[in-house]
Amino acid sequence: MKNFLSFFVITFLLSFSYSSFAQIVLPDYDNVCPDQEIEYTVQSSYYGDGQEFYVHNGVFIVADSLYQSTNDSTHIVMDITPNTNTFKVRWGNDGSLGGIYLNDNQSYECNIYNSYYSFLWSADTVVLTGPQSFYIEIKVYNADVNNTITNNSSNIVSVNEVKITSIPGSNDAIYRYRCDITGSDSGWVKFITSGPASQNCPSITSNVIRVDVSRKLHAPTLSFSGCLLCNDEDKTFSINSDPNAEDYTWSVSNGLKISVGENLYSTYTTSSTNVTIKAQTTTPGTETISVKSNGGNNYEDSDTQSAEIWHGKPNPDQIIYYNVGPNYPAQYEICIDFPNDGKALYDNSCASVLEYQWDALDWNIIQHPMDPFPAVNMQDVQITAPGYGYSIGDRVYFTIRARNRCGWGEWKYPKLELEAVNCNMYMMTVSPNPADSYINVSFADSELSTEEQSGESSINQIVSSKKVRKSKTGVMEEYLVQILDKNGTVRKSVHSKAMNLNIDTHDLEPGTYFLHLNWNNEVVKQQLIIQ
């Protein structure tokens, strides 16, 4: 009979005069109040054993003696007879709709008036140890209600409402609270909401919302000397001690090992605040050391703190040709009639490159005369064609390698391929720099002499030289020289066709300026110091 009854249509209806099922369950209600208790009568055609009832947004309040079996208060099983054909439901306030369901099949739904309640919207419930500020957000489903803090743990010294935000398109709202906590113990804050009576329903108060605040350890701070590790070296890594930490877990990437006595580990947990790291590969590259503080049962573990180091010699794949020739990388050309600039960069500062070595067969490559005392030798170079053997259109092949204290790395391949061209350029020089009362801008058809490039008599006068491509006619055309301050304001502006131009600077305040040469559809820029 139980299976037979499960196919029947039965519902407890809440409609008044307009409900077609008003005769099935009495009394009928379309609208109920939160916490209201209502008795429902099952229609005789649905009598039978083992009838299952469910309630949404409410609880059954039937005597236990009437249950065939007892489950939670939102699900009961009853034998329905003429003597046991009623039950009561206490409606809740978890939303605006409620319902009763028979055998997972039939349903009756009602509208719950005065449905205001709250729940935890978002909160910083995990807070770092020590004195901290954090925020809790409570969402209420009716902007007319009041949200109230009932109490909180003693280590939460203040809870202040800082903002009430309405939610577009609804009558809901979010309460936001700033909380201050001291010490390192966990804590809690409790809230309730209450609102006015409406629709003949009394005012009710929501269930207490408790926000538990757990504590989390701070991420340790890694310290070590330098970030380069050679194959034959050990390196010690240390962290600050955390009195709340139970221990610390260290881990390293594949090319490294943690050395403990005669044993090597990839991951190691210890109470020590320092470990020794060894290299385990001859392949150069970036490696990672990580560590976190473990909180045990009292605290959440800290975030993992990581550091990268470079292991071994420089890797040629990470050498970048920043500039080679007049227009690299826009054009792959090299001048055979004029000195060329060259510059290399390494894409990892931890590799600690000390110098570069360039190779282009018989081309002359020297430390750039404008940078005679470099931090990294041969990073900036001057490249000059040999006196014979190269013509316009020939291919010139460059390669480069780098050295750190671990040794020389491999040569970079494939080689950089450039086309030999006649650049037909002027060399622009600016002197003196720093300047006082004047500067001289000059243009030359040929390369600077050796004395001009590196002699002590001129090194303080000529700070830099810039290459400027000639016009198609080869005739010096009108150009514009502007001096701009650090704010981009033009302080001097001079038009000229002269190969040598003297500009008065005595009226400029001491400081850093920028000289812009506008000529032949290009702009050449040079920093200028006025003292």
UniProtKB/TrEMBL annotation:
Domain PKD-like, by residue range, is: 229-282
Q: Which domain of life is it from?
A: Bacteria
Q: Give the signal peptide as a residue range, or say none if absent.
A: 1-22
Secretion system C-terminal sorting domain ranges (all copies): 431-530
Please report a single Pfam family linked to this protein: Por_Secre_tail
Protein's name according to its UniProt entry: T9SS type A sorting domain-containing protein
Q: Which keywords does the record carry?
A: Signal
InterPro entries of this UniProt entry? PKD_6, Secre_tail
